[in-house]
Amino acid sequence: MTTLSADLWPDVQPETARRLMLAGVESFAERGYHATTTRDIASAAGMSPAALYVHFPSKAALLFAISRNGHEQTLGLVEDVLARETDPAARMRMLVEDFVSWHARRHTVARVVQYELNALPEKEYQVVAELRRQIEKRVREVIAEGVESGAFSVSDIGIAARAVLSLGVDVARWYSERSRQTPAELGKEYGELVLRMLGAVS
To answer: Which has fewest Cβ within 10 Å: 52, 103, 104, 155?
Structure first.
């Protein structure tokens, strides 16, 4: 658990907080947020229930930490692609490859991050919703640049952006270690599919 949690959340300190976040992910993914108790989480982390409250004041606070961190990672992933590439088609291919690969490689975390949003309290939900808006905004900008340059042909940029993101997010729902393709292979396949969907001029 320690290696995986450190890999998932390298900036989270101390180590016990990372262990609790990983235990929360595993518990939420297995039972769903509402069916999971703080005792379930503490037990999965090898701690007493009281230990959880040292780092997270509630089960909702733990979910928020997991969800916010996951969305911050994906936003950073998107921004990194935009900083490395300027051509709209190349940007979109790389963006989709990285976005899909992340959701496949981190499929358990991503399922919790993406599908337990409605369990967040309103204030925390709005924080995560803003991160989601920022991600979608950047994808819309890439598509708009492609349309303007003639690289893409779509009738509604907003719908196209949501379709691109939905394809990537859905990977977390079905992907597993038994899947035939690796996360990187799947990312490349989705990258090509999205370019065709956007009417990319080859």
So the answer is: 155
